[in-house]
Amino acid sequence: MTSTLYQQIQQFYDASSSLWEQIWGEHMHHGYYGPNGDLKKDRRQAQIDLIEELLSWAGVQHADRILDVGCGIGGSTLYLAEKFNASAWGITLSPVQAARAKERALAARLSAKTDFQVADALNMPFADASFDFVWALESGEHMPDKVKFMQECDRVLKPGGTFLMVTWCHRPATPPNAPLTPDEQKHLEEIYRVYCLPYVISLPEYEAIARNLSFQNIRTADWSKAVAPFWDTVIDSAFDLRAIFGLLCSGWGTIQAALSLGLMKQGYERGLIRFGLLCANKQ
Predict the structure, then answer these.
(1) What pLDDT does 16 receive?
(2) Which of 5, 43, 172, 222 can bridge 177 by disulfide, Cβ–Cβ 3.0-4.6 Å?
(3) DSSP codes, the chain
């Protein structure tokens, strides 16, 4: 990972995580609004529902040792550790997030079963075959080398273990689909700039990477419709007085991201942005 991108991601989440937690809570990811995105839900319940729907889709019913790649302030890590009575590790590039995750683990009486570290997902500080469940929820889009990222997830996963990745993608752009247009490329580049992303790829490209690793039973799904309403609720929440005050205190990067929320909403509406799922088992 380049030092410049590392610093951008770290600074973005160092500055914005406290505000996100204040307004949205501990889960820093999309919500689930039914297969067609037409269910009305409390925004935090929708985020919890996403976790449960993902576990159900992937068929994960138990786990002993869990890795949360891109753990934020520990929302998914703590949820999974408690649900499965498992030991769980979370990694993030943000020291602020790692520190807050440890605080939240202490408050939840899960410190003995969890650990949070500042670490690079392209060079994880774990031995081979360390985990029976590797969970990566909306972190793949930040990875500057998608192949290396998936290789590392494969490396630390035990034989027979489950890998579940959920990530922002762009629409398929290889035959029989048309290549991305200049306007679509420009739209993506604006999203990259605002949210500190190097680039995103399509779900079929992720699947092709997975097929070159030691994964089997590879499955993919596009849940764009199910999560698209999330961005409407985020935009609505930005008008909360607490959010406005928090934005003013959190720096230009967070303000710019808030002002650019429409980029993601429009990306879903035009079919450019996709919410991609991939799960597999290690041979």
Answers:
(1) 84
(2) 172
(3) --HHHHHHHHHHHHHHHHHHHHHH-S--S-----TTS-----HHHHHHHHHHHHHHHHT----SEEEEES-TTSHHHHHHHHHHT-EEEEEES-HHHHHHHHHHHHHTT-GGGEEEEE--TTS-SS-TT-EEEEEEES-GGG-S-HHHHHHHHHHHEEEEEEEEEEEEEEPP-STTSPPPPHHHHHHHHHHHHHHT-S----HHHHHHHHHTTTEEEEEEEE-HHHHTTHHHHHHHHTTSHHHHHHHHHH-HHHHHHHHTHHHHHHHHHTT-EEEEEEEEEE-
The model's confidence at residue 245, banded by pLDDT at 50, 70 and 90, is very low
CA distance 69 to 163: 11
Q: Give yes or no for residue 118 having a pLDDT over 70.
A: yes
pLDDT bin (cut points 50, 70, 90) of residue 247 is very low
